[in-house]
Amino acid sequence: xxxxxxxxxxxxxxxxLDLVLTTExxxxxxRPMNQNKLVVHKGFNNKLSFFVRNRDRALQNISTKTLYATxxxxxxxxxxxxxxLTLVNSGTTGEASLELVPSDLTDLAPGLYQIAISxxxxxxxTEYPLYANQNDRIITDLEVKSNLEYxxxxxxxxxxxxxxxxxxxxxxxxxxxSSAMYGNQDNxxxxxxxxxxxxxxxxxxxxxxxxxxxxxPSSDTxxxxxxxxxxxxxxxxxxxxxxxxxxxxxxxxxxxxRLKYYPTAGTVDKVQLRN
Length: 275
Prior knowledge:
Blueprint (H helix, E strand, L loop, with lengths): L14 E8 L2 E4 L8 E5 L4 E9 L11 E8 L4 E7 L1 E2 L7 E6 L10 E10 L7 E3 L9 E6 L10 E3 L3 E4 L9 E3 L3 E2 L9 E20 L12 E3 L10 E15 L4 E19 L1
Parallel strand pairs: 1-4, 3-11
Antiparallel strand pairs: 1-2, 4-8, 5-6, 5-9, 7-8, 9-10, 9-11, 12-19, 13-14, 14-19, 15-19, 16-17, 16-18, 16-19
């Protein structure tokens, strides 16, 4: 049985407010074309645009102004963000934008906030509010949503390693492996990984390995070497009596990651993986 569905989506552009320049200062037009609430989404880049106009709705030159956005938590009355706006076309068109990257919203819980815009022409020595309507209200409602907010999976850690080859049994080298850790199964677009090895007096070679199997690998032949030092050269990471933490950043699309090492002295105490 199959099900086919369709859903129409719309590109509505960036949200905006019209600001009115009067002899008393800059106010925000409170006519119906202004939105009652601005909305931003966690996990995305967001852009809010503001237009400064006079009472005749003519765009004003704000090239000598610096505009700031202040976001306030209405429950605690505390400021949670202060960020300058960016003038568009050097401000000659009366437009300024508030550009928010995902990290700007990381610490903001979803919900309703209040945003106020202020302007200064002397690097903040004097600062004046811009009015959100012509009834002297300087606050506009801002809603933070988390419809598609995402978080990386927790850091994975292994402190126990299994010996798979032993020189005392006639093998060519002592070999140890960690159990399988999750690769970028939920992060297919970037494949970014950070791995850190905690070593004490370690000498020998370490390999970071991956596997593309859907299920947990069960055989040594299911794994391939990942060159975390770059795309050329030997994937083995050599050490001579190293003590400390050695981290590597690498990019690979793989379902599983493990550590495999060949010690001649010292120990691998643990390995941590973040992706």
